[in-house]
Amino acid sequence: MQKKMYVTGMDDEATAEKVTAAVKAVAGVANVVSSTAKCQVCVDFDESTAGIEDAITAAISSTGVIALG
């Protein structure tokens, strides 16, 4: 499944790289693309993994940005 999540606070490439690394570390995530220009994170993940969407949101929040959904 692919999901786009809009974020606030991802203003530079260093922050985008932190977000990408944090989300890639979540079990079940296949691919992550973070875009500062669009203020969004696109995530490909295995939707059968229990609690994965909450884990992705928590990973994004752990980097100091806010996931809007």
Give a verbal description of the structure.
There is one protein chain. It is built from 2 helices and 4 strands. It is α+β, with helices and mostly antiparallel strands. Strands 2-3-1-4 form a 4-stranded antiparallel sheet. Helix 1 (13-24) packs antiparallel against helix 2 (52-61). The protein is globular and about 30 Å long.
Order of helices and strands: EHEEHE
Based on helices, strands and strand pairing, what is the structural class?
A: alpha+beta
Question: Could you give the count of β-strands?
Answer: 4
Catalogue the unreliable spans: none
Oligomeric organization of the protein chains: single chain
Brief rundown of the structure:
Helix content is 32%, strand content 32%. It has helices at 13-24, 52-61; strands spanning 2-8, 29-35, 40-45, 66-67.
Protein traits:
69 residues; 4-stranded antiparallel β-sheet
What's the layout of helices and strands?
Elements: E1 2-8, H1 13-24, E2 29-35, E3 40-45, H2 52-61, E4 66-67
Antiparallel strand pairs: 1-3, 1-4, 2-3
Helix pairs in contact: 1-2
